[in-house]
Amino acid sequence: MTTRTARPARLQVTGAGVAALLVLSACNSSDGTSSGAGSSASGPAKVSGTVTVFAAASLQESFTALGKKFEKAYPGTEVEFSFGGSDTLAASIVSGAPADVFAAASTKTMTIVTDAKDNASPPLTFARNQLEIATLPGNPDKVTSLKDLTRSGLKVVLCDRTVPCGAAAQKALDASGLRLTPVSYEQDVKSALTKVELKEADAAVVYRTDVRAAGDKVDGVDFPESADAVNDYPIAPLENARNAEAAKAFVALVRSAEGQRALTEAGFLKP
Amino acid sequence: MTPPAPDTRKGGRRPGPIRTGVPFALLLPALLGLAFLLLPLVALLVRAPWHSLPEQLTSPEVWQALRLSLVCATSATALSLVIGVPLAWLLARTDFPGRGLVRALVTLPLVLPPVVGGVALLLALGRNGVVGQWLDAWFGITLPFTTTGVVLAETFVAMPFLVISVEGTLRAADPRYEEAATTLGASRFTAFRRVTLPLIAPGIAAGAVLAWARALGEFGATITFAGNFPGRTQTMPLAVYLALQSDPEAAIALSLVLLAVSIAVLAGLRDRWMTAS
Protein backbone atom coordinates (compact mmCIF):
# COMPACT_ATOMS: atom_id res chain seq x y z
CA MET A 1 0.00 0.00 0.00
CA THR A 2 2.67 2.47 0.97
CA THR A 3 4.89 1.66 -2.01
CA ARG A 4 2.02 2.22 -4.39
CA THR A 5 1.30 5.69 -3.04
CA ALA A 6 4.97 6.56 -3.13
CA ARG A 7 5.19 6.10 -6.87
CA PRO A 8 2.72 8.79 -7.94
CA ALA A 9 4.54 11.19 -5.63
CA ARG A 10 7.76 10.55 -7.49
CA LEU A 11 6.08 11.17 -10.82
CA GLN A 12 4.81 14.43 -9.45
CA VAL A 13 8.42 15.35 -8.61
CA THR A 14 9.63 15.05 -12.20
CA GLY A 15 6.63 16.98 -13.40
CA ALA A 16 7.43 19.81 -11.03
CA GLY A 17 11.06 19.74 -12.13
CA VAL A 18 10.04 20.37 -15.72
CA ALA A 19 7.69 23.11 -14.55
CA ALA A 20 10.53 24.69 -12.58
CA LEU A 21 12.75 24.76 -15.65
CA LEU A 22 9.95 26.31 -17.69
CA VAL A 23 9.47 29.02 -15.10
CA LEU A 24 13.21 29.73 -15.07
CA SER A 25 13.48 29.98 -18.85
CA ALA A 26 10.36 32.12 -18.99
CA CYS A 27 11.92 34.52 -16.46
CA ASN A 28 15.04 34.62 -18.55
CA SER A 29 13.37 35.47 -21.84
CA SER A 30 11.07 38.09 -20.34
CA ASP A 31 14.10 39.66 -18.69
CA GLY A 32 15.89 39.82 -22.03
CA THR A 33 13.01 41.50 -23.84
CA SER A 34 12.40 44.06 -21.11
CA SER A 35 16.04 45.17 -21.07
CA GLY A 36 15.98 45.30 -24.87
CA ALA A 37 12.93 47.54 -24.76
CA GLY A 38 14.66 49.72 -22.16
CA SER A 39 17.68 50.36 -24.37
CA SER A 40 15.61 51.09 -27.46
CA ALA A 41 13.50 53.57 -25.48
CA SER A 42 16.63 55.52 -24.53
CA GLY A 43 17.89 55.03 -28.09
CA PRO A 44 17.03 58.30 -29.83
CA ALA A 45 20.22 60.33 -29.29
CA LYS A 46 19.07 61.76 -25.96
CA VAL A 47 21.49 60.83 -23.17
CA SER A 48 19.72 59.84 -19.99
CA GLY A 49 19.52 57.12 -17.39
CA THR A 50 22.27 55.29 -15.59
CA VAL A 51 25.63 54.56 -17.16
CA THR A 52 27.84 51.95 -15.52
CA VAL A 53 31.58 52.46 -15.85
CA PHE A 54 34.11 49.76 -14.96
CA ALA A 55 37.43 51.53 -14.40
CA ALA A 56 40.92 50.69 -13.18
CA ALA A 57 41.46 51.37 -9.48
CA SER A 58 44.02 54.05 -10.32
CA LEU A 59 41.29 56.08 -12.04
CA GLN A 60 39.16 56.31 -8.91
CA GLU A 61 39.69 59.96 -8.04
CA SER A 62 39.81 61.42 -11.55
CA PHE A 63 36.87 59.39 -12.87
CA THR A 64 34.73 60.12 -9.82
CA ALA A 65 35.27 63.82 -10.54
CA LEU A 66 34.55 63.32 -14.25
CA GLY A 67 31.39 61.41 -13.35
CA LYS A 68 30.09 64.45 -11.44
CA LYS A 69 30.86 66.63 -14.49
CA PHE A 70 29.00 64.14 -16.70
CA GLU A 71 25.91 64.19 -14.49
CA LYS A 72 25.95 67.98 -14.59
CA ALA A 73 26.39 68.11 -18.36
CA TYR A 74 23.57 65.61 -18.96
CA PRO A 75 20.84 66.26 -16.37
CA GLY A 76 18.90 63.15 -15.48
CA THR A 77 21.87 60.83 -15.90
CA GLU A 78 23.65 58.96 -13.20
CA VAL A 79 27.15 57.47 -13.42
CA GLU A 80 27.81 54.31 -11.47
CA PHE A 81 31.42 53.24 -11.05
CA SER A 82 33.03 49.95 -10.24
CA PHE A 83 36.72 50.44 -9.54
CA GLY A 84 39.08 47.50 -9.22
CA GLY A 85 42.02 45.66 -10.69
CA SER A 86 41.77 45.91 -14.48
CA ASP A 87 42.18 42.14 -14.83
CA THR A 88 39.33 41.47 -12.41
CA LEU A 89 37.08 43.95 -14.21
CA ALA A 90 37.97 42.52 -17.63
CA ALA A 91 37.25 39.00 -16.43
CA SER A 92 33.87 40.03 -15.04
CA ILE A 93 32.94 41.88 -18.25
CA VAL A 94 33.78 38.81 -20.32
CA SER A 95 31.61 36.72 -18.03
CA GLY A 96 28.69 39.08 -18.52
CA ALA A 97 28.88 41.78 -15.84
CA PRO A 98 26.48 44.64 -16.65
CA ALA A 99 28.85 47.42 -17.72
CA ASP A 100 28.53 50.15 -20.34
CA VAL A 101 32.13 51.44 -20.45
CA PHE A 102 35.46 49.82 -19.60
CA ALA A 103 38.57 51.88 -18.85
CA ALA A 104 41.64 49.72 -18.24
CA ALA A 105 45.10 50.51 -16.93
CA SER A 106 46.84 48.49 -19.62
CA THR A 107 46.31 47.43 -23.21
CA LYS A 108 46.86 43.81 -22.13
CA THR A 109 43.81 43.78 -19.85
CA MET A 110 41.74 45.58 -22.50
CA THR A 111 42.72 42.79 -24.90
CA ILE A 112 40.83 40.31 -22.69
CA VAL A 113 37.65 42.26 -23.53
CA THR A 114 38.43 42.91 -27.22
CA ASP A 115 39.38 39.25 -27.78
CA ALA A 116 35.95 38.29 -26.52
CA LYS A 117 34.49 40.93 -28.88
CA ASP A 118 32.75 42.58 -25.94
CA ASN A 119 33.68 46.12 -27.03
CA ALA A 120 31.30 48.19 -29.18
CA SER A 121 34.04 50.21 -30.89
CA PRO A 122 37.85 49.94 -30.92
CA PRO A 123 39.48 51.01 -27.64
CA LEU A 124 41.22 54.39 -27.63
CA THR A 125 44.12 55.40 -25.41
CA PHE A 126 43.05 58.34 -23.25
CA ALA A 127 45.93 58.63 -20.79
CA ARG A 128 49.25 57.14 -19.71
CA ASN A 129 50.57 56.58 -16.24
CA GLN A 130 54.03 56.19 -14.77
CA LEU A 131 55.09 54.27 -11.69
CA GLU A 132 56.39 55.86 -8.54
CA ILE A 133 57.51 54.54 -5.18
CA ALA A 134 55.20 55.42 -2.30
CA THR A 135 56.96 55.60 1.05
CA LEU A 136 55.90 56.45 4.59
CA PRO A 137 55.46 60.20 5.20
CA GLY A 138 58.86 61.89 5.45
CA ASN A 139 60.54 58.86 3.85
CA PRO A 140 62.07 57.59 7.13
CA ASP A 141 63.76 54.65 5.38
CA LYS A 142 65.50 57.04 2.96
CA VAL A 143 64.37 55.27 -0.17
CA THR A 144 65.84 57.07 -3.18
CA SER A 145 65.90 54.42 -5.89
CA LEU A 146 64.26 51.22 -7.04
CA LYS A 147 67.36 49.36 -5.84
CA ASP A 148 66.78 50.64 -2.29
CA LEU A 149 63.56 48.60 -2.19
CA THR A 150 65.55 45.36 -2.37
CA ARG A 151 67.22 46.19 0.97
CA SER A 152 66.57 43.48 3.55
CA GLY A 153 64.25 44.41 6.37
CA LEU A 154 62.24 46.79 4.23
CA LYS A 155 58.60 45.72 3.88
CA VAL A 156 57.58 46.38 0.28
CA VAL A 157 54.22 45.58 -1.31
CA LEU A 158 53.74 45.17 -5.05
CA CYS A 159 50.63 44.68 -7.13
CA ASP A 160 50.05 41.13 -8.26
CA ARG A 161 51.64 40.38 -11.63
CA THR A 162 48.21 39.90 -13.22
CA VAL A 163 47.31 43.53 -12.40
CA PRO A 164 48.72 46.25 -14.72
CA CYS A 165 50.64 48.05 -11.96
CA GLY A 166 52.23 44.75 -10.94
CA ALA A 167 53.12 43.88 -14.52
CA ALA A 168 54.66 47.33 -14.99
CA ALA A 169 56.61 47.09 -11.73
CA GLN A 170 57.93 43.68 -12.75
CA LYS A 171 58.96 45.10 -16.11
CA ALA A 172 60.88 47.93 -14.45
CA LEU A 173 62.56 45.51 -12.02
CA ASP A 174 63.50 43.10 -14.80
CA ALA A 175 64.84 45.92 -16.98
CA SER A 176 67.20 46.96 -14.21
CA GLY A 177 68.11 43.38 -13.28
CA LEU A 178 66.76 43.71 -9.74
CA ARG A 179 65.22 40.93 -7.68
CA LEU A 180 62.66 42.14 -5.19
CA THR A 181 60.79 39.91 -2.75
CA PRO A 182 57.76 41.83 -1.49
CA VAL A 183 55.80 40.94 1.64
CA SER A 184 52.60 40.79 -0.39
CA TYR A 185 51.24 40.83 -3.94
CA GLU A 186 48.12 42.97 -3.71
CA GLN A 187 45.06 42.53 -5.90
CA ASP A 188 44.94 46.15 -7.06
CA VAL A 189 46.95 49.33 -6.82
CA LYS A 190 44.78 50.93 -4.15
CA SER A 191 45.20 48.04 -1.73
CA ALA A 192 48.97 48.26 -2.26
CA LEU A 193 48.85 51.96 -1.48
CA THR A 194 46.59 51.43 1.55
CA LYS A 195 49.17 49.12 3.14
CA VAL A 196 51.62 52.05 3.15
CA GLU A 197 48.98 54.56 4.26
CA LEU A 198 48.23 52.32 7.25
CA LYS A 199 51.99 52.10 7.85
CA GLU A 200 51.87 48.31 7.61
CA ALA A 201 54.34 48.36 4.74
CA ASP A 202 57.34 50.66 4.31
CA ALA A 203 56.96 51.17 0.60
CA ALA A 204 54.86 50.23 -2.41
CA VAL A 205 55.34 50.55 -6.14
CA VAL A 206 52.21 52.35 -7.34
CA TYR A 207 51.30 54.99 -9.92
CA ARG A 208 52.31 58.60 -9.73
CA THR A 209 48.59 59.46 -9.72
CA ASP A 210 47.99 57.32 -6.62
CA VAL A 211 50.80 59.05 -4.73
CA ARG A 212 49.31 62.41 -5.66
CA ALA A 213 45.78 61.33 -4.67
CA ALA A 214 47.00 60.08 -1.30
CA GLY A 215 48.12 63.61 -0.37
CA ASP A 216 50.37 63.78 2.67
CA LYS A 217 49.67 60.21 3.77
CA VAL A 218 52.58 58.98 1.65
CA ASP A 219 55.71 60.43 0.05
CA GLY A 220 56.52 59.81 -3.59
CA VAL A 221 59.93 58.84 -4.93
CA ASP A 222 60.50 58.98 -8.70
CA PHE A 223 62.77 56.38 -10.24
CA PRO A 224 64.21 56.55 -13.77
CA GLU A 225 63.36 52.91 -14.58
CA SER A 226 59.66 53.83 -14.52
CA ALA A 227 60.13 55.46 -17.95
CA ASP A 228 60.53 51.95 -19.39
CA ALA A 229 57.22 50.80 -17.95
CA VAL A 230 54.68 53.48 -18.80
CA ASN A 231 51.13 52.12 -19.04
CA ASP A 232 48.67 53.09 -21.75
CA TYR A 233 45.09 53.51 -20.50
CA PRO A 234 42.53 52.43 -23.12
CA ILE A 235 38.80 53.09 -22.91
CA ALA A 236 35.94 51.54 -24.91
CA PRO A 237 32.14 51.47 -24.85
CA LEU A 238 30.91 47.90 -24.51
CA GLU A 239 28.95 45.75 -26.91
CA ASN A 240 26.34 44.69 -24.35
CA ALA A 241 25.86 48.18 -22.94
CA ARG A 242 22.33 48.76 -21.69
CA ASN A 243 22.85 52.48 -22.19
CA ALA A 244 24.87 52.79 -25.39
CA GLU A 245 24.23 56.51 -25.92
CA ALA A 246 25.41 57.46 -22.46
CA ALA A 247 28.39 55.12 -22.83
CA LYS A 248 29.46 56.94 -25.98
CA ALA A 249 28.93 60.30 -24.31
CA PHE A 250 31.04 59.29 -21.31
CA VAL A 251 33.93 58.12 -23.51
CA ALA A 252 33.69 61.43 -25.39
CA LEU A 253 33.87 63.40 -22.15
CA VAL A 254 36.96 61.49 -21.00
CA ARG A 255 38.69 62.24 -24.31
CA SER A 256 37.53 65.88 -24.47
CA ALA A 257 39.76 68.80 -23.56
CA GLU A 258 37.94 69.07 -20.23
CA GLY A 259 38.45 65.39 -19.45
CA GLN A 260 42.10 65.52 -20.44
CA ARG A 261 42.65 68.54 -18.21
CA ALA A 262 41.19 66.69 -15.22
CA LEU A 263 43.38 63.67 -15.91
CA THR A 264 46.53 65.76 -16.31
CA GLU A 265 45.76 67.52 -13.04
CA ALA A 266 45.55 64.11 -11.35
CA GLY A 267 49.05 63.34 -12.61
CA PHE A 268 48.32 61.29 -15.73
CA LEU A 269 50.48 61.72 -18.82
CA LYS A 270 48.95 62.76 -22.13
CA PRO A 271 48.21 59.84 -24.47
CA MET B 1 -6.99 0.38 10.32
CA THR B 2 -4.49 -1.98 11.83
CA PRO B 3 -2.16 -2.65 8.86
CA PRO B 4 -0.58 0.84 8.59
CA ALA B 5 0.02 1.05 12.34
CA PRO B 6 3.28 -0.98 12.52
CA ASP B 7 4.60 0.97 9.55
CA THR B 8 4.39 4.35 11.27
CA ARG B 9 5.83 2.95 14.47
CA LYS B 10 8.88 1.75 12.59
CA GLY B 11 9.74 5.36 11.78
CA GLY B 12 10.27 6.13 15.46
CA ARG B 13 8.58 8.58 17.78
CA ARG B 14 9.42 11.64 15.72
CA PRO B 15 7.13 12.51 12.81
CA GLY B 16 8.54 10.70 9.81
CA PRO B 17 8.74 11.97 6.25
CA ILE B 18 5.44 12.55 4.49
CA ARG B 19 4.93 9.79 1.98
CA THR B 20 1.90 11.07 0.10
CA GLY B 21 0.27 14.26 -1.05
CA VAL B 22 3.18 16.70 -1.14
CA PRO B 23 1.49 20.04 -1.91
CA PHE B 24 2.62 21.43 -5.23
CA ALA B 25 2.98 24.92 -3.74
CA LEU B 26 5.70 23.58 -1.45
CA LEU B 27 7.26 21.13 -3.83
CA LEU B 28 7.98 23.64 -6.60
CA PRO B 29 9.92 26.18 -4.52
CA ALA B 30 11.64 23.32 -2.73
CA LEU B 31 12.90 21.88 -5.99
CA LEU B 32 13.89 25.34 -7.22
CA GLY B 33 15.86 25.81 -4.03
CA LEU B 34 17.55 22.46 -4.47
CA ALA B 35 18.43 23.21 -8.10
CA PHE B 36 19.71 26.66 -7.15
CA LEU B 37 22.09 25.21 -4.58
CA LEU B 38 23.29 22.35 -6.73
CA LEU B 39 23.57 24.03 -10.13
CA PRO B 40 26.79 25.99 -9.46
CA LEU B 41 28.48 22.87 -8.14
CA VAL B 42 27.37 20.90 -11.17
CA ALA B 43 28.67 23.71 -13.42
CA LEU B 44 32.03 23.47 -11.68
CA LEU B 45 32.16 19.77 -12.54
CA VAL B 46 30.88 20.26 -16.10
CA ARG B 47 33.45 22.95 -16.91
CA ALA B 48 36.32 21.27 -15.09
CA PRO B 49 39.37 20.90 -17.31
CA TRP B 50 39.48 17.14 -16.76
CA HIS B 51 42.21 16.51 -19.36
CA SER B 52 44.65 19.02 -17.84
CA LEU B 53 43.52 18.38 -14.28
CA PRO B 54 46.36 15.99 -13.35
CA GLU B 55 49.05 18.55 -14.24
CA GLN B 56 47.07 21.40 -12.64
CA LEU B 57 46.78 19.50 -9.40
CA THR B 58 50.38 18.33 -9.31
CA SER B 59 51.83 21.81 -9.81
CA PRO B 60 53.85 22.93 -6.80
CA GLU B 61 51.81 26.13 -6.45
CA VAL B 62 48.62 24.18 -5.80
CA TRP B 63 50.22 22.01 -3.14
CA GLN B 64 51.89 25.00 -1.56
CA ALA B 65 48.53 26.78 -1.26
CA LEU B 66 46.70 23.63 -0.11
CA ARG B 67 49.34 22.80 2.49
CA LEU B 68 49.29 26.37 3.80
CA SER B 69 45.48 26.30 3.93
CA LEU B 70 45.40 23.03 5.87
CA VAL B 71 48.12 24.13 8.29
CA CYS B 72 46.50 27.52 8.92
CA ALA B 73 42.94 26.18 9.26
CA THR B 74 44.11 23.48 11.67
CA SER B 75 46.14 25.96 13.73
CA ALA B 76 43.20 28.35 13.81
CA THR B 77 40.93 25.55 15.02
CA ALA B 78 43.43 24.54 17.71
CA LEU B 79 43.68 28.15 18.88
CA SER B 80 39.88 28.42 18.85
CA LEU B 81 39.63 25.28 21.00
CA VAL B 82 42.14 26.55 23.55
CA ILE B 83 40.46 29.92 24.06
CA GLY B 84 36.99 29.28 22.65
CA VAL B 85 35.87 26.35 24.81
CA PRO B 86 36.60 28.18 28.09
CA LEU B 87 34.81 31.22 26.67
CA ALA B 88 31.78 29.08 25.83
CA TRP B 89 31.86 27.62 29.35
CA LEU B 90 31.99 31.12 30.83
CA LEU B 91 28.96 32.16 28.76
CA ALA B 92 26.93 29.04 29.55
CA ARG B 93 27.77 28.29 33.17
CA THR B 94 28.39 31.58 34.90
CA ASP B 95 26.29 34.62 35.46
CA PHE B 96 27.85 38.04 35.35
CA PRO B 97 26.53 41.49 34.52
CA GLY B 98 26.50 42.17 30.80
CA ARG B 99 26.67 38.49 29.87
CA GLY B 100 24.08 38.97 27.13
CA LEU B 101 26.11 41.80 25.65
CA VAL B 102 29.32 39.74 25.76
CA ARG B 103 27.52 36.89 24.06
CA ALA B 104 26.28 39.22 21.31
CA LEU B 105 29.79 40.61 20.82
CA VAL B 106 31.24 37.10 20.56
CA THR B 107 28.85 36.32 17.73
CA LEU B 108 29.56 39.62 15.96
CA PRO B 109 32.27 38.17 13.67
CA LEU B 110 29.60 35.76 12.39
CA VAL B 111 27.69 38.59 10.77
CA LEU B 112 30.55 41.04 10.21
CA PRO B 113 31.82 41.10 6.62
CA PRO B 114 35.22 39.37 6.81
CA VAL B 115 36.95 42.25 5.02
CA VAL B 116 35.80 44.55 7.80
CA GLY B 117 37.24 42.02 10.24
CA GLY B 118 40.52 42.23 8.36
CA VAL B 119 40.57 46.01 8.56
CA ALA B 120 39.76 45.85 12.29
CA LEU B 121 42.57 43.34 12.81
CA LEU B 122 44.98 45.65 10.98
CA LEU B 123 43.98 48.56 13.21
CA ALA B 124 44.34 46.39 16.32
CA LEU B 125 47.27 44.12 15.60
CA GLY B 126 48.96 45.81 12.64
CA ARG B 127 52.46 47.23 12.93
CA ASN B 128 50.93 50.61 13.64
CA GLY B 129 47.85 49.17 15.39
CA VAL B 130 46.46 49.88 18.84
CA VAL B 131 48.13 46.78 20.32
CA GLY B 132 50.37 45.90 17.40
CA GLN B 133 52.64 48.92 17.83
CA TRP B 134 53.62 47.69 21.30
CA LEU B 135 54.14 44.13 20.05
CA ASP B 136 56.52 45.61 17.50
CA ALA B 137 58.26 47.98 19.92
CA TRP B 138 58.68 45.52 22.80
CA PHE B 139 59.06 42.13 21.13
CA GLY B 140 59.78 43.01 17.51
CA ILE B 141 56.70 41.03 16.47
CA THR B 142 54.78 42.18 13.42
CA LEU B 143 51.79 40.11 12.40
CA PRO B 144 50.55 41.39 9.02
CA PHE B 145 52.01 39.60 5.98
CA THR B 146 52.93 36.54 8.09
CA THR B 147 51.52 33.03 8.34
CA THR B 148 50.70 33.80 11.98
CA GLY B 149 48.63 36.67 10.65
CA VAL B 150 46.67 34.23 8.50
CA VAL B 151 46.01 32.01 11.52
CA LEU B 152 44.82 35.00 13.56
CA ALA B 153 42.54 36.24 10.78
CA GLU B 154 41.02 32.78 10.39
CA THR B 155 40.62 32.36 14.14
CA PHE B 156 38.83 35.70 14.37
CA VAL B 157 36.30 34.62 11.77
CA ALA B 158 35.96 30.94 12.73
CA MET B 159 36.04 30.90 16.54
CA PRO B 160 32.48 32.21 17.02
CA PHE B 161 31.19 29.07 15.27
CA LEU B 162 32.94 26.93 17.86
CA VAL B 163 31.85 29.09 20.78
CA ILE B 164 28.21 29.04 19.70
CA SER B 165 28.23 25.30 19.11
CA VAL B 166 29.90 24.48 22.44
CA GLU B 167 27.76 26.94 24.38
CA GLY B 168 24.61 25.36 22.96
CA THR B 169 25.79 21.90 23.93
CA LEU B 170 26.69 23.11 27.42
CA ARG B 171 23.24 24.60 27.91
CA ALA B 172 21.64 21.37 26.80
CA ALA B 173 23.86 19.31 29.10
CA ASP B 174 22.59 18.71 32.62
CA PRO B 175 24.62 20.82 35.07
CA ARG B 176 23.68 18.45 37.91
CA TYR B 177 26.48 16.07 36.90
CA GLU B 178 29.03 18.81 37.54
CA GLU B 179 27.29 19.77 40.77
CA ALA B 180 27.39 16.16 41.88
CA ALA B 181 31.10 16.02 41.13
CA THR B 182 31.79 19.15 43.14
CA THR B 183 29.73 17.97 46.11
CA LEU B 184 31.82 14.80 46.01
CA GLY B 185 34.91 16.93 46.50
CA ALA B 186 36.14 17.70 42.99
CA SER B 187 37.31 21.23 42.31
CA ARG B 188 35.35 23.14 39.71
CA PHE B 189 38.21 22.82 37.21
CA THR B 190 38.46 19.07 37.83
CA ALA B 191 34.71 18.79 37.35
CA PHE B 192 35.04 20.70 34.07
CA ARG B 193 37.90 18.51 32.91
CA ARG B 194 36.61 15.11 34.01
CA VAL B 195 32.82 15.54 33.78
CA THR B 196 31.87 18.47 31.55
CA LEU B 197 34.40 17.96 28.75
CA PRO B 198 33.54 14.29 28.10
CA LEU B 199 29.85 15.21 28.31
CA ILE B 200 30.06 17.92 25.63
CA ALA B 201 32.74 16.25 23.49
CA PRO B 202 30.38 15.71 20.51
CA GLY B 203 29.42 19.40 20.55
CA ILE B 204 33.07 20.42 20.70
CA ALA B 205 33.89 18.12 17.80
CA ALA B 206 31.06 19.48 15.67
CA GLY B 207 32.00 23.06 16.52
CA ALA B 208 35.65 22.36 15.73
CA VAL B 209 34.82 20.91 12.31
CA LEU B 210 32.56 23.85 11.56
CA ALA B 211 35.26 26.31 12.62
CA TRP B 212 37.86 24.41 10.62
CA ALA B 213 35.72 24.52 7.49
CA ARG B 214 35.06 28.22 7.95
CA ALA B 215 38.78 28.88 8.47
CA LEU B 216 39.65 26.87 5.37
CA GLY B 217 37.36 29.01 3.24
CA GLU B 218 38.39 32.32 4.79
CA PHE B 219 39.20 34.98 2.20
CA GLY B 220 38.32 38.56 3.11
CA ALA B 221 39.99 38.92 6.48
CA THR B 222 43.03 36.98 5.29
CA ILE B 223 43.78 39.06 2.19
CA THR B 224 43.13 42.27 4.10
CA PHE B 225 45.18 41.45 7.19
CA ALA B 226 47.83 39.04 5.94
CA GLY B 227 48.18 40.07 2.30
CA ASN B 228 48.98 37.66 -0.49
CA PHE B 229 52.35 35.96 -0.86
CA PRO B 230 52.70 32.44 -2.29
CA GLY B 231 53.75 29.93 0.36
CA ARG B 232 53.44 32.39 3.24
CA THR B 233 49.98 33.91 3.20
CA GLN B 234 48.42 32.78 -0.08
CA THR B 235 45.82 30.22 1.02
CA MET B 236 43.59 28.26 -1.38
CA PRO B 237 40.73 30.80 -1.59
CA LEU B 238 43.22 33.59 -2.38
CA ALA B 239 44.87 31.39 -5.00
CA VAL B 240 41.46 30.63 -6.55
CA TYR B 241 40.53 34.30 -6.66
CA LEU B 242 43.79 35.46 -8.22
CA ALA B 243 44.01 32.51 -10.61
CA LEU B 244 40.55 33.30 -11.93
CA GLN B 245 41.90 36.56 -13.43
CA SER B 246 44.81 35.01 -15.28
CA ASP B 247 44.21 31.29 -15.57
CA PRO B 248 40.56 30.25 -15.15
CA GLU B 249 41.38 26.56 -15.64
CA ALA B 250 43.73 26.65 -12.67
CA ALA B 251 41.01 28.41 -10.64
CA ILE B 252 38.53 25.63 -11.47
CA ALA B 253 41.08 22.97 -10.54
CA LEU B 254 41.76 24.68 -7.21
CA SER B 255 38.02 25.04 -6.61
CA LEU B 256 37.55 21.33 -7.20
CA VAL B 257 40.13 20.59 -4.51
CA LEU B 258 38.28 22.81 -2.04
CA LEU B 259 34.98 21.21 -3.07
CA ALA B 260 36.44 17.76 -2.41
CA VAL B 261 37.67 18.88 1.01
CA SER B 262 34.23 20.32 1.83
CA ILE B 263 32.52 17.09 0.83
CA ALA B 264 34.96 15.19 3.01
CA VAL B 265 34.07 17.43 5.95
CA LEU B 266 30.36 16.87 5.35
CA ALA B 267 30.94 13.14 5.13
CA GLY B 268 32.75 13.33 8.46
CA LEU B 269 29.78 15.11 10.00
CA ARG B 270 27.25 12.79 8.34
CA ASP B 271 26.33 10.98 11.51
CA ARG B 272 25.72 14.19 13.35
CA TRP B 273 23.76 16.32 10.90
CA MET B 274 22.64 14.39 7.90
CA THR B 275 20.74 11.91 10.00
CA ALA B 276 19.65 14.50 12.56
CA SER B 277 16.36 15.05 10.76
Automatic annotation (TrEMBL), chain A:
GO-annotated biological processes: molybdate ion transport
Keywords attached to this Swiss-Prot or TrEMBL record, sorted alphabetically, are: Metal-binding, Molybdenum, Signal
The secretion signal range is 1-19
> Which PROSITE patterns does its entry note?
PROKAR_LIPOPROTEIN
Family annotation (SUPFAM superfamilies): Periplasmic binding protein-like II
Q: Which InterPro entries match?
A: ModA, ModA/WtpA
Q: GO molecular function terms here?
A: metal ion binding; molybdate ion binding
> What is the top-level taxon of the source organism?
Bacteria
Q: Which residues hold molybdate?
A: S58, S86, V189, Y207
Under the heading NCBIfam families, the entry gives: modA (TIGR01256)
Q: Which PANTHER family match?
A: MOLYBDATE-BINDING PERIPLASMIC PROTEIN, SULFATE-BINDING PROTEIN
Q: Which family does it belong to?
A: Belongs to the bacterial solute-binding protein ModA family.
What is the name of this protein? Molybdate ABC transporter substrate-binding protein
From TrEMBL, chain B:
Alphabetical list of CDD domains matching this protein: TM_PBP2
GO: which molecular function terms? molybdate ion transmembrane transporter activity
Membrane topology recorded in Swiss-Prot or TrEMBL = Multi-pass membrane protein
Q: Where are the transmembrane segments?
A: 21-46, 66-92, 104-125, 137-166, 195-213, 250-269
Keyword Transmembrane in annotation = yes
What region holds the ABC transmembrane type-1 domain? 66-267
Record InterPro entries: MetI-like (IPR000515), MetI-like_sf (IPR035906), ModB_ABC (IPR011867), NifC_ABC_porter (IPR006469)
Query: What does the entry list under GO cellular component?
Result: plasma membrane
Q: Where in the cell is it found?
A: Cell membrane
Keywords in alphabetical order, please: Cell membrane, Membrane, Molybdenum, Transmembrane, Transmembrane helix, Transport
Q: Does the keyword tRNA-binding apply?
A: no
Function recorded in the entry: Part of the binding-protein-dependent transport system for molybdenum; probably responsible for the translocation of the substrate across the membrane.
Family stated for the protein in its record: Belongs to the binding-protein-dependent transport system permease family. CysTW subfamily.
> What is the protein named?
Molybdenum transport system permease
Q: Which organism is it from?
A: Streptomyces phaeoluteigriseus
At the highest ranks, the source species' classification is: Bacteria, Bacillati, Actinomycetota, Actinomycetes, Kitasatosporales
